[in-house]
Amino acid sequence: MTLFQQAQEAARTIQGLTPLQPKIAVVLGSGLGFIESRVTEGVALSFDKIPNFRTSSVTGHAGKLVVGRLAGVPVMLFCGRIHLYEGHSAQDVAFAVKTAVLAGASTVILTNAAGSTRADWTPGQLMLIQDHLNLQGTNVLTGPHDENWGERFVDMSDPYDGHARETIKEWAKGQNLTLQEGVYAGFHGPSYETPAEVSMARTMGADAVGMSTVQETIAARQLNARVVGLSVLTNLASGVSPVPLSHAEVKETADRVKGDVVRFIEGILPIL
Ligand code: HPA
Question: At what angle do helices 214-222 and 95-102 cross, to 10 degrees?
């Protein structure tokens, strides 16, 4: 079976789960899986029960898909993702997003935890991703071209839909919510960046650094889906912060700003 046929098969399983047929998929990054508890009419399926699905071999728990309603809007919620740093290929990293689009999602909301390269931003703030730098040393479109996915040379001039960003920023103005907007630099990981790498990324225009998202965005754009990106700025990046980085800090901050993340996702779903 080709990768496309594998994704089609996975997509059919997802479509068969409920009559809801969501047009929006949400990928939840590190520490953001709690949003699942907000879903109504939800049907859950462990990733390892979806045919051909790529699951995390490292963390021990596969992650799961929940199809249901959030803020009344039908969504496919992907709780957990796989990363390049676990040893997965870029194609595998993006498989869930590709499947979601084949299953009917025309909009993909990608969330992640990220470090801020800016000392004037505060950990815990949310950042709407305006654009990205792919510093992961790979591209999901590498390899033989299968035209079922779309074009070989994919236009990336509006990777994070500009129109959606305007709508979201208008919405955020009416909320008691600080929403930054900036460029996300995707690194390979899993080591955090060195201060020199953060300084390089900052010089190149990055406002945030993380280890996910960019391959999924490229894959979604090839399939012509609209992408919205959200970074939870869990920490000041290495060298910007006076203290060493820790995964504990990342989890702690993500946990502390849960309420804002829920408000953001539930606020934007009905207006997208
Ligand atoms: N760097 C890379 N990934 C991250 C960070 C960071 O500072 N914080 C959370 N994820």
Answer: 30
Please tell me the total count of domains within the chain: 1
**What is the mean pLDDT of the segment spanning 239-245?**
91
φ, ψ of residue 193 in degrees (nearest 5): -70, 155
Containing domain of residue 19, as a range? Answer: 3-142+150-271
> Whose C-alpha lies nearest to ligand 1, atom 9?
114
For residue range 102-114, list pLDDT tens digits in order: 999 999 999 999 9
Tell how far the Cα of 103 is from the centroid of ligand 1, in angstroms: 31
Give residue ranges with CB within 6 A of ligand 1.
113-115, 192-193, 209-211, 234-235, 237, 245, 250
Residue 82's CATH number? 3.40.50.1580
Confidence of residue 33 (pLDDT cuts 50, 70, 90): confident
Q: For the chain, give the mean pLDDT.
A: 95
For ligand 1, pick from 125, 132, 192, 214 the residue to mutate: most ligand atoms within 8 Å of CB. Answer: 192
> How many CA within 13 A on the CB side of residue 146?
12
